Amino acid sequence: MLLLRRCHSLTRFGPLNTQRHQLTPAVVLCAVRLWSSSSEDGGSYQRAHGPSWRHGLAGLLAGTGAVLAYGLHHHKAEQQDSSTVQTIEKTSAFPIISQEEVTTHRSLEHGIWVTFKGGVYDITKFVAMHPGGDKILLAAGGALEPFWALYAVHNQEHVLEMLSEYKVGELSAEDVKKQKTIKTSDPYSTDPERHPALHINNLKPFNAEPPPELLSDSFITPSAIFFKRNHLPVPQVDAASYQLHIEGLPGGVLTLSLEELKTRFPKHTITATLQCAGNRRSEMNKVKQVKGLNWGIAAISNATWGGARLRDVLLAAGYSPDVAQRAFHVQFEGLDKDVTGTTYGASIPLNKAVNEEGDVLLAYEMNGQDIPPDHGYPVRAVVPGTVGARNVKWLGKIIVSAEESSSHWQQNDYKGFSPGTDWDTVDFKSAPAIQELPIQSAITVPTDGAVVDRSSEEVTVKGYAWSGGGREVVRVDVSLDGGKTWQVAQMRSSEKGQAPGPSPPPGRAWAWKLWEVTAPLPAEAQELEIVCKAVDNSYNMQPDTVPPIWNLRGVLSNAWHRVKVEIREDDNEE
Amino acid sequence: MLLLRRCHSLTRFGPLNTQRHQLTPAVVLCAVRLWSSSSEDGGSYQRAHGPSWRHGLAGLLAGTGAVLAYGLHHHKAEQQDSSTVQTIEKTSAFPIISQEEVTTHRSLEHGIWVTFKGGVYDITKFVAMHPGGDKILLAAGGALEPFWALYAVHNQEHVLEMLSEYKVGELSAEDVKKQKTIKTSDPYSTDPERHPALHINNLKPFNAEPPPELLSDSFITPSAIFFKRNHLPVPQVDAASYQLHIEGLPGGVLTLSLEELKTRFPKHTITATLQCAGNRRSEMNKVKQVKGLNWGIAAISNATWGGARLRDVLLAAGYSPDVAQRAFHVQFEGLDKDVTGTTYGASIPLNKAVNEEGDVLLAYEMNGQDIPPDHGYPVRAVVPGTVGARNVKWLGKIIVSAEESSSHWQQNDYKGFSPGTDWDTVDFKSAPAIQELPIQSAITVPTDGAVVDRSSEEVTVKGYAWSGGGREVVRVDVSLDGGKTWQVAQMRSSEKGQAPGPSPPPGRAWAWKLWEVTAPLPAEAQELEIVCKAVDNSYNMQPDTVPPIWNLRGVLSNAWHRVKVEIREDDNEE
């Protein structure tokens, strides 16, 4: 029974539901894996990957007994990778068009044409509808393949169906032959290996989250299972030749090597939680479909970061308070780039960057080691209290500017809108770029659909709580009856069994709190609707329900978190 | 009809209800007053009070056409004042006790005895239940009268009933005679006159709020109708001899005269909204009774404040960054005091006080004039983004300290708790003192129970929105159907018709925004449930409903605000 109940927790990776008979396949799969794992003395994932994971996660796994499903991971990865790309039919009804002709259609005035697997498509009318914005124009007059290799989200049947509607011709055989000689190398082939415990939301670029029950086991999330949110391939950066450029200050451009960053500036260490703006998006998808990766509740993690203060580096580059008269933003550019050379970019307000209490780091350490490739090796921005998207990884350039970053991700993404705003009416200029995130909490244990035996008499509920802007979580309320009555959870801000550090100064509470409640099972209940809500020290609270905060990008999903748990009356079968 | 509908808006001062027939008396009263007011060329309240009000409010009143009910104000004031104090019965069944004997009972060990109107009461068992905390001990061994004169909240029948349960004797005739010769002068007799538009929640100390529809008419609230929240009598402060003491810094005590404060430090001006922690408490009272003044939605106002920066004064008094190694709070002491000499007090975090971007003022001007007596003449703290209670008025002393203020209001009041916490279980040490307030908004027009004629075809909804901590309001969503569908309101951050100033820097948006939506009346609806909710730039949102944020002190009431409006089909009677 214990095995069965633990395995239930994996079912959140499948469709969420509470009917037990539907859970059967997952339970069986889970049991098989548990057997295969234990029979091989630690499981195949440990053999497949290096000893660093084994070291970092040994205690973690012993503590949770969670099932880490390597097979599932590989299976899903392959599915997404090879995909459905071969399904477009050839038809001879279309005219033959030369690449030369295609190349003349690269403006809205002359039409936007692209080629894909030997077909020619006039996508002029589609440009305005493209979920990725006007980046689609980068492919104008040329082939889609290199872009789709980069954004694997396109490798889906409905995308191909949409494309087929715009077909206008066949590329000439000669040009097809030419195209084939330009080998499209996979820009993701050098991405690092990942821990098999991660649940993959997207393979290319890599986006994955840990199982919730692992998350709440460690106050400091091990780097290997820290959620990963990449927008582009992981760049290969050579630490010896790495350079960081700081621009826009009176001293001209300052260029620092990694060694200089480490030795010229004092090392500062903070423990800070990062959260993706899309964390818990899956709950918004249940209300009405949104655009974005279908994150569960674990696109959030907590780590200790070490590095130079951005403030110190800006001062060394010539920052003085009068700069703030003309400059209001600090832009970050990553070294990760797409085929056109466009890099990932974002910006933060200048006062966050230069304030002594802002604690913004140019971090080169994560949990006491070099930052791993997936998290920005060798240097990333850590902007505590601020949405993950501004914590730019593989940092190449810092620009002090009068303007926000002009990147797609700053201007036309990562913004919140009214539930009444749809893709026909949205004006991205009308909303501010997300910086500080609102109060958040979620239940990691038990998972939705779990079963509790009546004989256990009580239920233990665990979770995390965090707020943006350095606002400390001061209380978590937990309800077992859907929100009618509430009890206050116990919180901790250190590893289990360790004494908590001193309270953070006001406005500098960057780390989450883990919480726990053990309560008697209500005598009459056959099902529990467990709910949590957190309060921060500005007494902001989470909204009750999802629909009124629903937004077309599915960001900022911070309503009360709810899971349903079935109470099974004891029977005589065992 | 126009008159009738406007008068409806006054009914929120009575019990809130939506049934029209119950509103009749208020409507009649209102009509009578409107007649009497106009027949006397401006109304009696203008004659009764000086020309400054007439000047400040002329435009305001012309713009709203609101009815300002002077008679109502006076009637209620008298009711609260003369009250029910004479109702305790004499009985000869009790022993005669001397004042000397009473005086020996002033500790929990020996019992807590008090006298009231010739009776002797052993209140030992009541001490723990006293809503005002252990301040009740100040009366031990003596008479209650001077305390009750100060806290007029005691002048209620149920308080006297409670007291009568604790009666143990009659004070000796000789001692009663002695007591009578000590004339209890009313410490509130020198309180300033107030504007009759204010709705009085408590007369002594004075607590009052403006009618909501006046509130949303002015971006800057005229001082006369700015909500008043006094904890004690208004002190009489002589500007010429006024002294402000700054203690706890290496330079020793710095003492400044008003003139020095004005001339030694640059004058800094900010526009900042202040809100009482108890704003909208009446909505919590509808869920379950809480302790505190029954504020409507208007215990919030916006003004322009001028004064010296606290930061500059602390620097002049010897503050340097190393002080922050040992001190974490700045305490404020008011000059308002009770009969024992205990002054009003509160504290704020040191980093808010000294941060260049904290904008904390020692203000001597409100809306371009000397601060009026009710708002802290001659000097008050203005701590923008922070709950009203920390904006200490009639400022006498500033203490830089390792500790928070030890005052009742910092330690045992103005804190938030879980809805499951009651007076038997509350531990005031478990919650942080409220500082920054959460996101807030409310509908000022129309008021609950208003009637809209179908022929008007559309409805205009107005209100305010504000958030603490300098977080700018970025959106207000308005629903006419109870929260099912939403539209985005137009916001303004200046007086009507004036161009808004430049956007505040991040984290320094201290002023509210006024908002407005005009929408067609839904064709089928007979009633509208109008709802508003605001979003600030950390994307915090208001909770949906009141019960899950209910707390025993009724503070932090910031759920969606809801008003019901009846749509009347046109008929042939008019």
Shape of chain A: globular
- Overall structural class of chain A, as computed from helix and strand content, comes to alpha+beta
Strand % of chain A is: 25-35%
Arithmetic mean of pLDDT of chain A: 84
Number of strands of chain A: 27
Strands in their spatial order, largest beta sheet of chain A: 1-5-4-3-2
Largest interface between protein chains, with number of residues from each side = A-B, 47 and 47 residues
Give me the number of helical elements of chain A. 15
Catalogue the unreliable spans of chain A.
1-90
Output the radius of gyration of chain A.
25 Å
CA-CA gap between termini of chain A: 9 Å
Brief account:
Two copies of one chain form a homodimer. Chain A is α+β, with helices and mostly antiparallel strands and 574 residues long.
What does this structure look like?
Chains A, B: Residues 94-172 form the Cytochrome b5 heme-binding domain. Chains A, B: Pfam families: Cyt-b5, Mo-co_dimer, Oxidored_molyb. The structure is a homodimer of 574-residue chains. With 574 residues, chain A is an alpha+beta fold. Helix content of chain A is 21%, strand content 25%. Chain A has a five-stranded mixed sheet. A five-stranded mixed sheet of chain A has the order 10-9-18-13-14. In chain A, strands 11, 12, 15, 16 and 17 form a five-stranded antiparallel sheet that branches. In chain A, helix 1 crosses helix 2. Chain A is globular.
